[in-house]
Amino acid sequence: MNHESSFLEMKAWFDKNTEGNVLVALSGGVDSAVVALAAKHALQDKAVAMTANYQTLAESEMITAINVAKEIGIRHKVIQYNELDEPNFRKNDRLRCYYCRKSLSQYLISYAKELGISCIVDGTNADDVFDFRPGIKALHESGIKSPLLEKKIGKSVIRQIAKHYKLSNYNKPSNSCLASRIPHGITITQQKLKKIEYAEKIIKDLFKVEQVRVRDHNDIARIEIDIKEFPKMFDLKKLNSADCLLKKVGFRYVSLDLGGYKSGKLVVL
Q: How far is Cα 262 from Cα 217, in angstroms, rounded to an integer?
């Protein structure tokens, strides 16, 4: 199925599965952006998007979500709450993402009720089921639907749709909440999250790489980037700058993971 027929399938899904209105959980990623786009095309002003600033998402993701909502022309609400207020999330066990998405679901449901909306959707796609994603279970338990998953649409087609409709994040690397950089069993704190966000911004700004994860192993910052971007790192002056800057924020050692970036890498440690 090509991107044109896939997008028509998405629009048809909204016509069939909603009672004329829908709330889209919109992050800064391309998946939920395409869902919001299809909802807007199908339902016009009866499609609404909501983005949650829950204090564990990088600021750049929030900015992207706001910009993409404007590009789509969808009504957009940003809510704020602190995920760190949830003890089960803060303790950071293997179900951290489950607790995160349970909290998000409650806010989505509450806002949908205010608007008289019965259908809530997210950007889970057909490729996501191949990873360990307890957050998906939490969303589906709460009644949130995943049109991309139901229509078996994966990332490559999603990017083609976004590019065709000129969404600015069509080629944006996948991202996840900053808490995913902290190994399970280590308590999540605001200080750690800010340190990680700063460290990743430094690496992106210095080396102009697209995909970056700075894994926080207490004293050690383990930098993951796509192997294809390794040549960008071979600048001794920039490496020295990165080493100094990351040590200033509390890391004792700064390392580059020679295995490169891999989604969910901390899960298998």
A: 17
- One-letter amino acid of 57: L
Q: How confident is the model at residue 21 (pLDDT cuts 50, 70, 90)?
A: very high
Whether this prediction's pTM lies above 0.90 is answered by: yes
Q: Which token pair is 62?
A: 């929030």
Distances from the Cα of 177 to the Cα of 28, 150, 158, angstroms: 11, 24, 21
How far, in whole angstroms, is CA 115 from its chain's centroid? 25
CATH 3.30.70 matches 178-268: yes
Token pair of 168 as six digits: 């600015």
Q: What is the pLDDT of residue 69?
A: 97
Average pLDDT, the chain: 93
* Yes or no: domain 3-164 corresponds to CATH 3.40.50.620: yes
Residue 258 confidence class, pLDDT cut points 50, 70, 90: very high
**Residue 175: per-residue pLDDT:** 84
Q: What is the DSSP string of 156-183?
A: HHHHHHHHHTT-TTTTPPP---GGGGS-
With 90 as the cut, is the pLDDT of residue 78 above it? Answer: yes
Residues of the chain within CATH 3.40.50.620 domain(s) are: 3-164
Tell whether the torsion through CA atoms of 175, 145, 111 and 158 is positive or negative. Answer: positive
Residues of the chain with CATH 3.30.70: 178-268
**CA of 11: how far to CAs of 65, 75, 120, 206, in Å?**
21, 18, 15, 41
